[in-house]
């Protein structure tokens, strides 16, 4: 028998303890035998990339427990977070609504508007409204005991799990990153912290305790890990283990990040083992998901494009697994697109709780049970009108079947991709498929109007810092970089300062800084660049930012530049990127000495719209989007680092 839950704002007004007593008799646990209700465990990882686990093809990371979960349930290949950053996705899970519907469209508190951004970002609500009905409230009203363990990040005190339907809150507060790091004691709201304990382990222990304490009644456990969000910290033994491990594909991977993933996987294993021990496995519905894509500075998320903070697949497509032995065939795979807005209706469907308020998500219980192969949904939507710390730009998107249309608000640009044939989003089909482009854009625009979406606007204060003009302090980039002795050699300096070095220049950069010179005349057919670079960052820690890039293009803003160079810190790789790093790019693992000197030869063929980089024996080629008509500026780029560069040798026509 399904139960109906109406809007329950009174629950939040009078407090959970009293509210539990105020729930009508028809909604109390006594209405149905406990054995008829499935237990529900929702395991949410943070910043875990789609291809970061073994069952999704990662050749280096070790995830036997997550793989075990997939072997016993259904693995989704096309599962999406509702946003490329955390808070909006978490709100969508809790409510079944798109972030744009809620008005919570960015991570809390988000970036501030700045003169370095072309567009002004709209404001958004920085808490999950108490008026919204959450999974926990609905299940609590249906007789479940509810517990939240770990990251919350959906508002200040007064909007924490205990205010949103959870009987138990262990560690959940306003912060997105673990305050004070992963090694306890830290500044989180955890009791009895033991020095040296690892946070992921502690949260796993707390989750297992919650299951033990509530084994005789239906429970909902929201096991929300901070891993593998920054800071990138792992147990020393695990770091050493992965430093010494050889990758079967010859790639070089971040050992500390791999260690964090191992701890996350062990946490999943602890939860699964507890269910086995208490003989609860068969009647427990287990979800595993990540809140957004992987961070490109530590993981590549190949073959997907970009990562966290970007509207491309690497930022929103997630590893997702569901296990429910009563109904799901072991080892199943599903390619139907689903979204994080679908969890609430799916859980209520299986738990026998009827929805009576409007949401955006659809139940995919029929997919889990093998009753259907498709949901018959017209589209899945995204709206993130904000810049991200990872280089993402304000954008909206829609997926219809195999096709995905992206609207980038800088320059009002539209892109179209066939994800079935082009999962890496390399080939823009806007010009080849104008009819489909128009239809999907019309659908996206109609949805944005329906949810009353807010949009970015032109920034009247947007300016570039130049090396020849002194600017007022209020116009400086967000990351302050001291002036250099050689700044005058450059026409454009953004978050960068230039001094002398043995190679020629020492370029100091803040958040994605650039130092550019304007060419004497534009190159419209071909440009060939030769440059040497070497990191000047001291120390052996993999956490040190080491990188350096040749930068060139037909403009001076981040979106107009092509960057060719190397990451030399944690995950070492060669890269060619068009626009923001991590947006449109091609990469290869780097196996040489990261502290050595590198010689790059880069050829930009503007007729063929290709860029090729040769460094030693490595060769990379990126097919451009077709927008680079000439090269007017060239120079250097970096991210929070200091790199030595030789003076550019430029030829072309």
Question: How would you summarize what this structure contains?
Answer:
The protein is α+β, with helices and mostly antiparallel strands and 653 residues long.
Structure characterization notes:
By secondary structure, the protein is an alpha+beta fold. It is built from 13 helices and 30 strands. The model is unreliable at 4-34 and 467-479 (pLDDT under 50). The strands form 5 sheets. Strands 18, 19, 20, 21, 22, 23, 24, 25, 26, 27, 28, 29 and 30 form a 13-stranded antiparallel sheet that branches. Strands 2, 3, 5, 6, 7, 8, 9, 10 and 11 form a 9-stranded mixed sheet that branches. The chain has a 4-stranded antiparallel sheet with strand order 13-14-15-16, covered by helices on one side. 19% of the residues lie in helices and 28% in strands. It is globular, with a radius of gyration of 25 Å. The longest helix has 23 residues, at 255-277. The termini are far apart. It folds into 2 domains: 3-380, Alkaline Phosphatase, subunit A (3-Layer(aba) Sandwich); 473-652, Exo-inulinase, domain 1 (Jelly Rolls, Sandwich).
Overall 3D geometry?
globular
Number of domain units? 2
Helix content: 10-25%
Distance between the termini: 75 Å
Say which CATH homologous superfamily of the largest domain is assigned.
Alkaline Phosphatase, subunit A
As a whole number of angstroms, the C-alpha radius of gyration is 25 Å
Q: Provide the β-strand percentage band.
A: 25-35%
Query: For the record, what CATH class of the largest domain applies?
Result: Alpha Beta
List the uncertain runs: 4-34, 467-479
Main beta-sheet strand count, sense and barrel state? 13 strands, antiparallel
Strands, total number: 30
Assign the CATH architecture of the largest domain. Answer: 3-Layer(aba) Sandwich
Fold-level CATH name of the largest domain: Alkaline Phosphatase, subunit A
Q: How would you classify the helix and strand content by structural class? A: alpha+beta
Give the quaternary arrangement of the chains. Answer: single chain
Number of helical stretches of at least 4 residues: 13
Mean pLDDT value: 89
């Amino acid at each position: 028998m399904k139960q109906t839950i109406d809007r329950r704002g009174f629950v939040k007004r009078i407090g959970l303890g009293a509210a539990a007593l105020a729930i009508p008799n028809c909604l109390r646990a006594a209405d149905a035998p406990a054995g008829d209700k499935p237990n529900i465990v929702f395991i949410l990882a943070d910043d875990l990339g789609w291809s970061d686990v073994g069952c999704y093809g990662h050749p280096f990371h070790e995830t036997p427990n997550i793989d075990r979960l997939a072997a016993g349930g259904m693995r989704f290949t096309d599962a999406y977070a509702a946003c490329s950053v955390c808070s909006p996705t978490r709100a969508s899970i809790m409510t079944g609504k798109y972030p744009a519907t809620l008005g919570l469209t960015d991570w809390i508190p988000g970036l501030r508007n700045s003169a370095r951004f072309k567009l002004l970002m709209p404001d958004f609500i920085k808490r999950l409204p108490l008026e919204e009905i959450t999974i926990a409230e609905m299940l609590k009203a249906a007789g479940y005991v509810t517990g939240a363990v770990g990251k919350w990040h959906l508002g200040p005190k007064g909007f924490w799990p205990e205010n949103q339907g959870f009987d138990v809150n262990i560690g959940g507060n306003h912060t997105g990153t673990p305050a004070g790091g992963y090694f306890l004691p830290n500044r989180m709201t955890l009791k009895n912290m033991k020095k040296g304990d690892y946070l992921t382990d502690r949260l796993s222990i707390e989750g297992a305790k919650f299951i033990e304490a509530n084994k005789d009644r239906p429970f909902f456990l929201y096991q929300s890990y901070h891993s593998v969000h920054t800071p990138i910290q792992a147990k020393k033994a695990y770091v050493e283990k992965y430093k010494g491990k050889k990758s079967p594909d010859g790639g070089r991977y971040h050992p500390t990040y791999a260690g964090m993933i191992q701890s996350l996987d062990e946490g999943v294993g602890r939860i699964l083992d507890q269910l086995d021990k208490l003989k609860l496995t068969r009647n427990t519905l287990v979800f595993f998901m990540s809140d957004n894509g992987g961070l490109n500075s530590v993981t590549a998320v190949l073959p997907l494009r970009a990562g966290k903070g970007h509207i491309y697949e690497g930022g929103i497509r997630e590893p997702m697994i569901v296990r429910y032995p009563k109904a799901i065939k072991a080892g199943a795979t599903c390619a139907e697109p689903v979204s994080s807005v679908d969890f609430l209706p799916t859980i209520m469907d299986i738990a026998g709780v009827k929805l009576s308020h409007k949401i955006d998500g659809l139940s995919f219980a029929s997919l889990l049970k093998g009753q259907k192969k498709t949901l018959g949904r017209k589209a899945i939507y995204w709206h993130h009108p904000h810049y991200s710390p990872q280089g993402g730009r304000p954008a909206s998107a829609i997926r219809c079947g195999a096709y995905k249309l992206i609207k980038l608000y800088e320059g009002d640009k539209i892109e179209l991709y066939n994800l079935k044939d082009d999962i890496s989003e390399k080939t823009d089909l806007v010009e080849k498929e104008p009819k489909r482009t128009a239809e999907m854009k019309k659908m996206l625009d109609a949805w944005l109007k329906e949810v009353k979406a807010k949009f970015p606007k032109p920034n009247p204060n947007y300016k570039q810092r130049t090396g020849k003009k002194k600017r007022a302090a209020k116009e400086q980039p967000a990351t302050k970089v001291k002036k250099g002795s050689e700044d005058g050699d450059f026409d454009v300096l953004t978050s960068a300062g230039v001094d002398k070095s043995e190679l020629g220049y020492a370029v100091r950069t803040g958040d994605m800084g650039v130092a550019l010179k304007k060419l004497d005349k534009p190159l419209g057919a071909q440009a060939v660049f030769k440059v040497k670079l070497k990191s000047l960052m001291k120390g052996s820690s993999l956490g040190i930012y080491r990188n350096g890039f040749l930068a060139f293009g037909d403009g001076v803003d981040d979106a107009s530049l092509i960057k060719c160079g190397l990451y030399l810190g944690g995950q070492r790789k060669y890269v060619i990127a068009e626009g923001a790093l991590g947006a449109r790019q091609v990469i290869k693992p780097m196996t040489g000495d990261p502290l050595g000197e590198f010689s790059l030869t880069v050829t930009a063929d503007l007729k063929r719209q290709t860029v090729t980089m040769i460094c030693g024996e490595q060769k990379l080629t990126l097919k451009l989007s077709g927008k680079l008509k000439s090269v007017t500026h060239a120079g250097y780029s970096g991210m929070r680092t200091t790199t030595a560069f030789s003076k550019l040798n430029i030829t072309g026509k």
